[in-house]
Amino acid sequence: MSIPTDHDTPAVGSQPADTKPKDNRAWFLILPVVVSVAFTAIIPLMTVVNYSVQDVFSSTDRLFVGLEWFRTVSRDSEVRAAFGRTLVFSLEVLLLEIPLGVMIALVMPHRGRWSAAALVVVALPLLIPGNVVGTIWQIFARGDIGLGGWAINNVPGVNFNYSLDPTDARLTVLVMDVWHWTPLVALLAYAGLRSIPDAYFQAARIDGASAWATFRHIQLPRLRGVLTIAILLRFMDSFMIYTEPFVLTGGGPGNATSFLSILLAKRAVGQFDLGPAAAFSLMFFLFVQIVSYGFFTALTRTRR
Questions:
Q1: C-alpha–C-alpha distance, residues 146 and 148, integer Å
Q2: What does the pLDDT read at residue 125?
Q3: Helices (H), 108-165
Q4: Domain locations in the chain?
Q5: H helices within 195-223, ranges in order?
Q6: Given this model, what pLDDT does residue 2 score?
Q7: What is the pLDDT of residues 74-122, one digit of tens each?
Q8: In this predicted structure, what is the pLDDT of residue 272?
Q9: Among 17, 262, 266, 283, whose CB has the most other CB atoms within 10 angstroms?
Q10: Quick count: other Cβ atoms within 10 Å of Cβ 69?
Q11: Low-confidence ranges of the chain (pLDDT < 50)
Q12: What is the largest distance, in Å, between two alpha-carbon atoms of the chain?
């Protein structure tokens, strides 16, 4: 065994002889993405920030008002009511879609020729655009020509009409969202279940564990990361929902389905009140980002 000498030890700060110089030309490959994001996200965001601190009278006539619009929006009772409706709707979506998606993933075949067919059938609602989903349920839930509305109204003592009754409207929007997006949770949970090694289930069978014990101690702990992602995605999508309820009810009857996104669009496009609408959208954006960061932190801790 030879002892290294000073001639064998490389000097501090020196580089090996075979070290190649770094080629930074690869950054040019992502330049189109950077430019695209700048035009589609960064520049519009800076425009919204600019409008949020000004009172816009015309394209050339503006007045700087500072944080006045943020204070106005935070004190607006209509915004607070819409925030409450949206938050309750998002919580209802999570309470229904997460358990239902896991149940569907558990009963889906994991092997054989029927597994591919089950995946295709479950994923079909995800392929339908939001405006088409709203149109489908607008017809399906009508009591006069829709099969769903006709079936519900045939129940004794029930008079279902989502266009006149606020409770019926909220239930219709909720059921529509569950039908549209539960398959996403089911597919994520299905992928998580398929990633569990068979050795876990073999050990459970040897120990005589029941189906509930297997789910509680093997499947559910291995699904934590997947379910955290599903909760994050579904909360963000449901909290920012716009197209489906807008097509189905237009925010009505009254303000029953007037969520934050619909109220924001009404003020920005319908009333052309750019200053308060810009402050409204920034507060909306920051709330979603803060909640998303909380979910991301929980996800990283779960992985650790």
A1: 6
A2: 93
A3: 113-123, 130-140, 147-153
A4: 26-64, 77-303
A5: 198-207, 211-214, 220-222
A6: 47
A7: 998 999 999 999 999 999 999 999 999 999 999 998 877 788 888 899 9
A8: 78
A9: 262
A10: 24
A11: 1-3, 6
A12: 96
- Give the count of beta carbons closer than 10 Å to the beta carbon of residue 149: 21
End-to-end CA distance of the chain: 42
Q: Are 252 and 163 in contact (CB under 8 A)?
A: yes
CA separation (Å) from 110 to 65, 113, 124, 194, 213? 60, 9, 18, 7, 19
Tokens for 238, please give them: 């449901």
Give residue 1's pLDDT.
45
Q: Are 283 and 74 in contact (CB under 8 A)?
A: yes
| Half-sphere exposure for 181 (CA within 13 Å, toward CB) | 25
Distance (Å, whole) CA 186 – CA 89: 20
CA distance 189 to 285: 28
Tokens (6 digits) for 216: 């509680």
CA–CA distance, 296 with 229 (Å, rounded to integer) = 8
Structure tokens at 54: 């000004």
The per-residue pLDDT for 83 is: 93
pLDDT digits (tens, 9 = 90+) for 21-34: 676 777 778 888 88
- Of 150, 125, 161, 103, the C-alpha closest to 244 is 125
Half-sphere exposure of 147 (CA within 13 A, CB side): 1
Phi first, then psi, for residue 143 (nearest 5°) are -75, -20
What token pair was written down for 97?
């879609």
Domain 77-303 falls in which CATH fold? MetI-like fold (1.10.3720)
Q: Is 106 exposed, middle or buried (0-12, 13-18, 19+ CB in 10 A)?
A: middle
